[in-house]
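User: structure tokens for this one?
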Amino acid sequence: MTDFNALSRDERALYNPGFTGLAVVRAVQGHQTEFGTPCPVAIATLAAVMALQPMVRTALPRSTASGLHRWVQEHRAVRASMALNATAIADVVRPGLLMALQSSTLACDAEGHLHVPNKAMKKAITGGSADVIAVQKAALLLGRWLPSAGSTSTVMTLLGVRP
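Assistant:
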């Protein structure tokens, strides 16, 4: 597990639990919008991890019409980046997920799937900087897009990560 105090000042600002929780909530919100069902925890976490990486974020397609398999083949650096960074970033995303659950911005059903309760989060994406907005938009897109490639294990295998 990554020690939060060992991170640089910029990393602590980017990876604070409030912001990483917001990325998870946007991923769950995207999943709910696209599929109308609660989101698996693994997909919400994976989407937030991807959205927090600038290299991955800038390579994302503009819509969910692109196939994940072909996109990963066309952007091989994404798979390498995920294999290298996913574990460390997931360590800073988990406290954000817990914070969102504790603040009732997210709720968990009996099957362990996440959903955003009514009126818990505005749908409009706002933020103090372009990066804050870009991370939220990327998480929302990934929450809509990742499950379209198949099961959670298929998605994780395509991206070269494990739960």
